[in-house]
Amino acid sequence: xxxxxRTGDSGGGxxxxxxxxxxxxxxxxxxxxxxxxxxLSDGRWEGEPFVxxxxxxxxxxxxxxxxxxxxxxxxxxxxxxxxxxxxxxxxGGYVYLAAVARRNGAVVNLGTSLVGDRVQLRDxxxxxxxxxxxxVQHDSDDAACCPTRKATRSWTLRDGQLVELTADVDGTxxxxxxxxxxxRLTHLGRGDPAPAEPVITLTFDGRQVGxxxxxxxxxxxxxxxxxxxxxxxxxxxxxxxxxDGEARLESRYLSAxxxxxxxxxxxxxxxxxxxxEDGIDVLLFEAQGPTTGGP
Length: 295
What we know:
This protein is mainly beta. It is built from two helices and 21 strands. It folds into two domains: 22-172, no CATH class; 175-290, Lipocalin (Beta Barrel), CATH 2.40.128.270.
């Protein structure tokens, strides 16, 4: 999610310092990840290969679509909070929380804090002077690939450092956590954004899923077979006629949905991993607030 901030002046002609923009955050310098700070370029930094001529190298990237603003140190100026992903060539991916401000016109990293390895990001918000992050993280029995424990964690800026205040664990994630809101499709696959129109939606209600597929309504059964693993039954569509392009889009979406294997969370979005003809792909959805009705 991105929270915009306004620009303006102080009334006397001097510019008002505002939170750094998305572009500035994608080209800022961040400390606290390695011994030396790294400077992103278009949201990404790459180090030298671990082995000369090898492909594996350290990488730090800005987590897109997950940025908030707030006055972190009480000086009346809005600061920005983003998340960074660090990978060193293995299967892991370390998530970092970073606070960034504009000071005398320069973009400055105020503090960086490790969130964890392969943590799933559900939501990021600013509340009562604290940065609050909802995550799915590892329990002691979880496989490294697949965290299952819901947690709400909070940080504050203190003496130039991001300090974690609380970490409240709240049970195992389940499809019940997907209920009560409508999810809008944003991507049909990796690097494949869904068109703005028609709007395709998904809702969860007990053992049922449903929504609007692009032409008409659809519904199906859903079963959680293991933590974050689900099976969706045969989909029943309304059969409403629509232009060929929208009909093809609906057919493609419903086919992918029917092949869903598991769900997870990526940068505040719901991710449904599905079996595609050429391997595994993912549907991405944005939360649209309270659901307008059951499937």
